[in-house]
Amino acid sequence: MKKIFAAALAVSMITLFAGCSKQDNAERKVIIYSNADDEAVVSVKKALDSNGYEGKYIFQSFGTSELGGKLFAEGNDIEADLITMSSFYIESTQAQNNMYKPLEFEAKKVINTPNYYTPLLAIQGAVIVNTKLLEEKGLPYPKSIKDMGNEMYKDLVSVVDPMGSTTAWLMVQALIASYGEDGTKAALKGIYNNAGPHLELSGSGPIKKIRAGEVAVGFGLRHQAVRDKKNGLPIDFVDPVEGNFALTESVAVINKKKYNPLAMKMAECIIKNARADIIKDYPVVIYEGETVDAENQASNSKVFDQPLTTQLLKAHQELSESCK
After folding, report:
1. Are 158 and 198 in contact (CB under 8 A)?
2. Rounded to whole angstroms, how far apart are CA atoms 238 and 222?
3. Which residues pair with 128 in a beta bridge?
4. SS3 state of residue 84
5. Quick one: CA torsion of 158, 296, 309, 203, rounded to 10 degrees?
6. CA–CA distance, 128 with 207 (Å, rounded to integer)
7. Could you give the C-alpha distances from 141 to 149, 226, 241, 287, in angstroms and in order?
8. Mean pLDDT over each residue of the chain, to the nearest integer
């Protein structure tokens, strides 16, 4: 009788613990790590909260380099279940750590991506000008990124340092694609010389100085200049002859040992429900059926002819450093 009782008790305890484990997994909140800017974070949280996931996730924001370092160092041991992150970091960390699950939902993209991530948003670069200051100085619009190195724009240029923000990488990609490395070095030396103290570490640094009339020309994010122009500021933009290159930020699910299936459902929810708001702030078409206003359609969209990786970014940063 004692043996029968002990066996029954053991079975009961196993059943109890198994039930608790299932319950704990079901109730465990999804941890989301993100490098997204505030506008995108608002859209992501709105999509989740309005579709039944309010209170079921913990959202933590990081700088791109900080989050990238965690992904490389921790792999699928990272605390996060779900991330939104620059796509080139996702590809590079997948190559090193094999840390993402294939997505279990369909997203009809107009661009090709691997099966373990899908884009959340895209940004494009452009030359930005202060129309009032150009007129006061009697200067023409630059037609290219390279033109910003012309002596006529001395001390009137602001661009981003590639060591500070990947916004600058859009500029460097365009130059390398058009002029090769030697031509890019010559162009960057002229641009950096003209920029002087207006070489910024923040991606939004140049457009802030252009808005304030501190400089007349610069390089930044196209959609910000379009918005400023619409709002009546003396701002205009130029799609440079070298091309409007783009970077994407994407959603990926960590292939964790203690995988939470809710993370995959939230990833699907974000893509299917946040894009309607996100495309208003980042007006670049990524999925079938999306449309943007004519002014938000870059006239010279291009894609770099090599896969974008952290290794390639480092090489381009080193090239840039040699031009200072």
Report:
1. yes
2. 9
3. 218, 237
4. strand
5. 30
6. 7
7. 13, 16, 13, 33
8. 92
End-to-end CA distance of the chain: 86
Distances (CA, A) of 134 to 109, 140, 150, 159, 239: 40, 7, 14, 17, 17
Single-letter residue type at 120: L
Tell which phi-psi region holds residue 98, choosing left (phi > 0), alpha (psi between -120 and 50) or beta: left
For tokens 């091309």, the residue is: 243
Distance, in Å, from the CA atom of 263 to the CA atom of 282, rounded to the nearest integer, reads 24
pTM above 0.90, yes or no: no
Which sign does the torsion angle of CA 130, 134, 135, 140 carry?
A: negative
- Where residue 27 falls among pLDDT bands split at 50, 70, 90? confident
Place of tokens 């791109």: 64
Q: How far apart are CA 229 and CA 99, in angstroms?
A: 42
Lookup: tokens for 239: 């799609």
Give yes or no for a contact between 16 and 8, defined as CB atoms under 8 angstroms apart.
no
89: which 2 tokens? 């970091």
Residue type, 126: A
Query: pLDDT, tens digit, for every residue of 276-299?
Result: 999 999 999 999 999 999 999 999
Whole-number Å distance between alpha carbons of 51 and 195: 47
At 283, give phi and psi (nearest 5°). -80, 70
| Helix (H) or strand (E) segment spanning residue 59 | strand 57-61
What is the rounded CA–CA span in Å between residue 299 and residue 301? 6
Gyration radius of the chain over CA positions: 24
- Residue of 97, 71, 98, 66 whose CA lies nearest to 83: 71
For residues 71 and 87, what is the distance between their CA atoms, to the nearest angstrom? 12
**pLDDT tens digits for range 88-105:** 999 999 999 999 999 999
Tokens matching residue 147: 């033109």
What are 186's two structure tokens? 């010559």
90, 96, 106, 122: which is closest to 251 by C-alpha? 90
Decide: 228 and 129 in contact? Cβ < 8 Å: no
